[in-house]
Amino acid sequence: MSPALLTSMLDPVPVPAQHPLFRQPSYGLGVMIDPGSPYGSVAGHGGGGPGYSAAALHLPHIEERRATIVVLANRDRDDLAMGISFALADILATSDSTKP
What we know:
The protein is an alpha+beta fold and about 100 residues long. The protein has helices at about 5-10, 80-95; strands spanning about 15, 25, 30-35, 40-50, 50-60, 65-75.
């Protein structure tokens, strides 16, 4: 992927919607983005269907590190995997960033 395309992909366009986990719900090219996240800008996507819930989030600036969190859950509860992803982000945000 070219740097220009990646920049376009991560350019947040606000959407007129509420989301319990996103402060400023936005979309880029195929990804959900929250530029107002307490962890810095967050990009990723969640989804699910009968019997599963999935989420993948990329946090490029969390406590002076980069992190990608992927959660796959064998439950069909809406936003279960996304909620777990944000819970893990909370742990990363409060952990000692001097350790690898």
